[in-house]
Target: CGNR zinc finger domain-containing protein
Amino acid sequence: MCPILSREHYFLQVINELNQHSVESGSLEERLRDMLLELAESVRDGKRLGMDTLHRLNKLFEQYQAIRLKVSLVPRAASLFAGETDEHTSDTGEEGQQLLLHSEFLDGPDQLRRKYMESIISLLEAMEKSTLALQTCVQCDRWFIPYRRAQVTKFCGSACRNRYHYERTKMGSRRLI
Ligand SMILES: [Zn+2]
Model:
């Protein structure tokens, strides 16, 4: 049994709002943020993680233990196995409950160190699956996951692609004048 520790691809949301955060120089938050970027850049550039990075990552986990285990009873209706809910949906007795072992973060969702730690974890969980591709948009610098069919795309969406080509054309025509 291996509980999932983070929201899937949560790192994408956080990494694209890093420029709105202010972190103190030398703080834990700064080291977490830099680690998040370092990991994302290694995925984007197709580089393997070095022993040095792993060492620093484990040091961060040691310094900031962000997660604790928790066991709960949840209604069986919340089970992922939809077929099991047919007969017992109205049953609120013990049979209607299910044991759930999960993890939870100690800090609130608005704290930067929690955001960065959950981002790092969600990125590592995506990297574990080894199918992750990451890119930064040539036009707007946003991080995005390219569609499998279009690994070579340079833009996060058609709006940025159009904008990029529009500006190129404009520059080109200006040069002609
Ligand atoms: Zn873009």
Q: What stands out?
A: The chain has a mean pLDDT of 86. The beta strands are 67-75, 97-105, 135-136, 143-144. The chain is about 45% helix and 10% strand. The pocket of zinc ion is lined by residues 137, 139-140, 142, 155-156, 160 (CB under 6 Å).
